[in-house]
Design goal:
The structure holds two protein chains of two kinds. By secondary structure, chain A is mainly β. Helices cover 0% and strands 51% of the residues of chain A. Chain A has no helices and twelve strands. Chain A has strands at residues 3-5, 10-14, 19-21, 24-26, 32-39, 46-52, 60-61, 64-69, 74-79, 88-96, 106-107, 111-116. Chain A is globular. Chain B is mainly beta. Chain B has strands at 5-7, 10-13, 19-24, 31-38, 42-50, 53-57, 64-68, 74-78, 87-94, 106-108, 112-116. In chain B, strands 2, 4, 5, 6, 9, 10 and 11 form a seven-stranded mixed sheet that branches. The N and C termini of chain B lie far apart (37 Å). The chains are: A mainly beta, B mainly beta. The A-B interface holds A 33, 35, 37, 42-47, 50, 52, 91, 95, 97, 99-110 and B 31, 33, 35, 42-43, 45, 48, 50, 55-56, 58, 88, 90, 92, 94-95, 97, 101-111, 113.
């Protein structure tokens, strides 16, 4: 079974600074997707960024980027120029590839990010 | 484009009762997944429906069941409620599959907060 581990229950960052959230995963699959979701106090899960395992290039979305190390099974999220609105719970998630026939997500326990003004 | 709609948003039930939660996916999406979120266990996968068929099931007792209708709307039912069923229940819709790799993203609703007393 696949597992996702987030070793940092809480992190804090100063506004405008950079913070990195860690995630490791375990799988025997070669085809899979990795995601970072954000859950603000409103409780709605919002996709931040995704990475396809077959792509070597790290995904980037504006101030958000990932460091995907496939051999090490590591998938960290870097938030640059942190803003107050980035404060939320961040979840790392895994999904098998299998040609899109399986939409089950396996989540880590989450990292609570606080942004200090 | 309307997002994923979950109803009701909040629910209070008594131990032993049963409850039905509803999820309307994004128009055109055929996959609906359900997750239970609690402070202790985090986000756990309940089940996934695709074109009215249950395609995946998590490790939950038989008191948890679901179904999907021809319009892709899904319902989740919990019978004989226990205090431990108190949680945020999230629904996610995915698809349709387009191209070789398909649509990998899951869009979440705002959840139903169930409290069992």
């Amino acid at each position: 079974a696949q597992t996702v581990t987030q070793s940092q229950p809480e992190m804090s960052v100063q506004e405008a600074e950079t913070v990195t959230l860690s995630c490791t995963y375990d799988t025997s699959e070669s085809d899979y997707y990795l995601f970072w979701y954000k859950q603000p106090p409103s409780r709605q899960m919002i996709l931040v960024i995704r990475q396809e395992a077959y792509k070597q290039q790290n995904a980037t979305e504006n101030r958000f980027s990932v460091n995907f190390q496939k051999a090490a099974k590591s998938f960290s999220l870097k938030i640059s120029d942190s803003q107050l609105g980035d404060a939320a719970m961040y979840f790392c998630a895994y999904r098998r590839g299998s040609g899109g026939s399986n939409y089950k997500l396996t989540f880590g326990k989450g990292t609570l990010l606080t942004v200090n003004p | 484009k309307a997002g994923v709609t979950q109803t009701p948003r909040y629910l209070i039930k008594t131990r032993g009762q049963q409850v039905t939660l509803s999820c309307s996916p994004i128009s055109g999406h055929r996959s609906v997944s359900w997750y239970q979120q609690t402070p202790g266990q985090g986000l756990q996968f309940l089940f996934e429906y695709f074109s009215e068929t249950q395609r995946n099931k998590g490790n939950f007792p038989g008191r948890f069941s679901g179904r999907q209708f021809s319009n892709s709307r899904s319902e989740m039912n919990v019978s004989t409620l226990e205090l431990g069923d108190s949680a945020l229940y999230l629904c996610a819709s995915s698809g349709p599959l387009t191209g070789k790799r398909g649509n990998t993203e899951a869009f979440f609703g705002q959840g139903t907060r169930l409290t069992v007393v």
